[in-house]
C-alpha cells in the first residue's frame, strides 16, 4: 500500500455571523453570503470528512483510519486515542462578532457529553482595520462579579478585548471566555469537539426574529475566572519549523517556506499542513501534489520522508 497526502471535501457551515471571505480570501466554493466555517478535516459525528484525491477518493476519513490506524494517525496517536481522530481543523470567516462563549475541559465534557474538551488555537489569516477578539478577563474575577455583569449586560466591561492583525496567534485553554470579532479570517486547530457554551450573543436575532440558545448555567462550572495570557509569540526563521504551540493535545509550527525542505517523520503521528499564503508542492514517491492558500492536507504517519517545495506560509500540526 502506497500512502499519499490526503485532501478532503470542505464541510461548509452557515452561521448568523458568517460572510463571503471563505471564497474571496481562501478560494472556497461557498454558495451563500453567510458561510462562517469551512471544516477542513473532521470526524465529528454527522460531519465526517471525505477524501477528494487519489486512490481513496470518495472514502470517509473514519473508514480509512479504521482500516489503517497506525499508518494513518500514527503508532503513538493510535495507542493514545484508539481509532478516534483527536483534532478538528477549520477556517472561519467572522463577518460579525461571534457569541461570547466558553468550552469545557476534558473531564467536564466527558461527564456531560461523552466528548473531548475543546482546547484550541487561532492563527489570524486576514484582519480588517481595528478587528478585535475577546480573550478572558481583564483582571482576575469570580462567579459573582461575572453573573452581576452578565445580568446587567455589562459583561464586555470586564472582558479583555485585543486588537489583532495578520499573523497573530492565540492559544485558548479550556475555560477561557472568548469571542472572535468581526472582520477576521482565522485558521483554527482544536480538539475534536463541537461543545460550546454560549453565554452572551449581543441580543441579536435570526431572520425569523429568534434569539439563539444560551448556556449560562452549563458555563458556570466551565469558566476560568482568572486573567490568562493567550497571545503566542514565535520566530519566523525561513525554511524551518518554528514552534508556536506545544501542548498535550497538539503541536503547531510555523514554516515560512522559500525553496525546498526535506522532511523526516517518525511514524508516531500524522502531520497536517494548512497553507496560509503562497503555494507549495509535496514531493513523494516520484509524485508532486500542489497546494495553494486555503488548502489543508493530511500526511499519513506512514509517509516518513517527503519534500516541501515552493514559496508559502504554512502551519504544521501533529501530536507529540
TrEMBL record:
Cofactor note: Binds 1 zinc ion per subunit.
Record-annotated Phosphomannose isomerase type I catalytic domain positions: 8-115
Keywords associated with the record: Isomerase, Metal-binding, Zinc
Signal peptide residue numbers: none
Named cofactor requirement(s): Zn(2+)
Active site positions: 198
One Pfam family per UniProt: MPI_cupin_dom
Gene Ontology terms, MF aspect: mannose-6-phosphate isomerase activity; zinc ion binding
UniProt cross-references to SUPFAM superfamilies, sorted A to Z: RmlC-like cupins (SSF51182)
Name of the molecule in the record: Phosphohexomutase
Species name: Flavobacterium xueshanense
Amino acid at each position: 500500500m502506497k500512502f499519499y497526502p490526503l485532501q478532503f471535501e470542505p464541510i461548509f457551515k452557515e452561521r448568523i455571523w458568517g460572510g463571503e471571505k471563505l471564497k474571496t480570501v481562501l478560494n472556497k466554493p461557498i454558495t451563500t453570503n453567510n458561510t462562517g466555517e469551512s471544516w477542513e478535516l473532521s470526524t465529528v459525528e454527522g460531519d465526517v470528512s471525505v477524501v477528494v484525491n487519489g486512490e481513496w477518493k470518495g472514502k470517509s476519513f473514519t473508514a480509512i483510519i479504521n482500516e489503517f490506524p497506525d499508518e494513518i494517525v500514527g503508532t503513538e496517536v493510535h495507542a493514545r486515542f484508539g481509532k478516534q481522530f483527536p483534532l478538528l481543523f477549520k477556517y472561519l470567516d467572522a463577518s460579525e462578532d461571534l457569541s461570547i462563549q466558553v468550552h469545557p475541559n476534558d473531564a467536564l465534557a466527558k461527564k456531560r457529553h461523552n466528548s473531548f474538551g475543546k482546547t484550541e488555537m487561532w492563527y489570524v489569516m486576514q484582519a480588517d482595520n481595528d478587528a478585535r477578539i475577546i480573550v478572558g478577563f481583564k483582571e482576575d474575577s469570580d462567579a459573582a462579579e461575572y453573573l452581576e455583569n452578565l445580568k446587567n449586560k455589562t459583561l464586555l466591561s470586564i472582558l479583555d478585548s485585543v486588537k489583532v492583525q495578520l499573523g497573530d496567534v492565540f492559544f485558548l485553554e479550556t475555560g477561557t471566555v472568548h469571542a472572535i470579532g468581526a472582520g477576521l479570517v482565522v485558521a483554527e486547530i482544536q480538539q475534536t469537539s463541537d461543545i460550546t457554551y454560549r453565554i452572551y450573543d449581543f441580543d441579536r436575532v435570526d431572520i425569523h426574529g429568534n434569539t439563539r440558545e444560551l448556556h449560562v448555567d452549563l458555563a458556570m462550572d466551565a469558566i476560568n475566572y482568572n486573567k490568562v495570557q493567550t497571545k503566542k509569540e514565535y520566530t519566523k526563521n525561513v525554511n524551518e519549523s518554528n514552534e508556536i504551540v506545544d501542548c498535550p493535545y497538539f503541536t503547531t509550527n510555523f514554516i515560512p517556506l522559500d525553496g525546498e525542505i526535506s522532511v523526516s517523520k517518525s511514524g508516531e503521528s500524522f502531520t497536517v499542513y494548512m497553507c496560509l499564503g503562497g503555494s507549495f508542492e509535496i514531493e513523494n514517491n516520484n509524485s508532486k501534489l500542489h497546494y495553494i492558500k486555503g488548502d489543508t492536507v493530511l500526511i499519513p504517519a506512514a509517509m516518513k520522508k517527503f519534500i516541501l517545495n515552493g514559496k508559502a506560509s504554512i502551519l504544521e500540526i501533529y501530536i507529540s
